[in-house]
What does this fold into?
Amino acid sequence: MNFLKFVTQDQSANKGNSKGKIITFLFRIANFAGIHRRYKWLFFPYILLYKFSFEWILGMEIPYTLQVGEGFRIFHLHAVVINQQTIIGKHFTLRQSTTIGNKGSGTKSPVIGDYVELGAQVCLIGPIHIGDHVIIGAGSVVVKDLPANCVAAGNPAKVIKQF
It folds into this structure.
């Protein structure tokens, strides 16, 4: 995939969401360098600017090395923390005050399938797998695997609907 196609792969998913378009575009520029290591030194100044502006100014920790599929949507930009070991599929929707991470140093992070949508203030913690086509309600804490084609909510999150 060429550079221009790579950095614009999330634009149609963020249609009508100008903040999401800008954030995913800036993320994908840094992500290009994170995935294509041979460009890391060329993009080094941009990566420093990305880390400073995202982490210190916007209050978002989305590592530039994060593995995330096309169609990445972000609504409401603040207080997002994603562990760099997390693997995210295509058409992932993220909202504010969300934490996706591990249980501590050296432990594994979540693997998230395609077409997953997270409500605000969701926590996904530990070596869990979230299936495809899953909606997780606001305020949920997910510490166990969730099957495909379901809606989950609560603390701890439970499947409340299968489809």
